[in-house]
Design goal:
The chain is built from 8 helices and 11 strands. The chain is α/β, with parallel strands linked by helices. The strands form 3 sheets. Strands 2-1-3-4-5 form a 5-stranded parallel β-sheet, with helices on both faces. Strands 6-7-8-9 form a 4-stranded antiparallel β-sheet, with helices on one face. The model has no long low-confidence stretch (mean pLDDT 90).
Amino acid sequence: MRILIVEDDKNIQRLLRASLGDTGYAIDVADDGEDGYHLGSGESYDAIVLDLGLPKIDGLSILERWRKEGVVTPVLILTARDSWTEKVKGLRAGADDYVAKPFQMEEVLARIEALIRRAKGVASSVVTIGPLTLDAAQGMVFRDGSPITMTPLEYRLTAYLMMRRGVVISKTEITEHIYDQNFDCDSNVVEVLINRLRKKLGAEAIETRRGQGYVLAL
């Protein structure tokens, strides 16, 4: 899963990037509203964390532009604790949820997880498909009840496939949602990752649809 953080406060930015990265997300960061707007408009994300008090373009204006342009990515806005009017404006402009500063990182993680689940049509943080169980809250995958040791990339792709069970996912979509913007993704990196997962999940778990992509086949 890939997340965009639009935040100019370096301390908050580092905290969000480290915590979300440790949870298994691929992270892109924008330091100001202008860069954040362009990234959110031109790249594919599973969720966006958006501060409202940004230089160059404020967060509310960015959000309004995205929604007018048809960007439907779930957005979690960050607001000042005493600014209830900003919360109302943000929600009316198209935000999906908000967190007031200063915040607890566990709350941010839980809210992002919930936003992504809802966007994918998944109600619970625990998803079981055949012998596989994804526990998004723990950031773990189990096979027949036993935990599977995975790299962050392997976990992200497994989670994405399980959240979109039955949907054929192209290589392009995988690279857009699994890797951050700085990753140099060559032509065969997705195939290598899929092959590694088949060894861990079972050869039958991921089906290749020639010319289309991959689908979780359990």
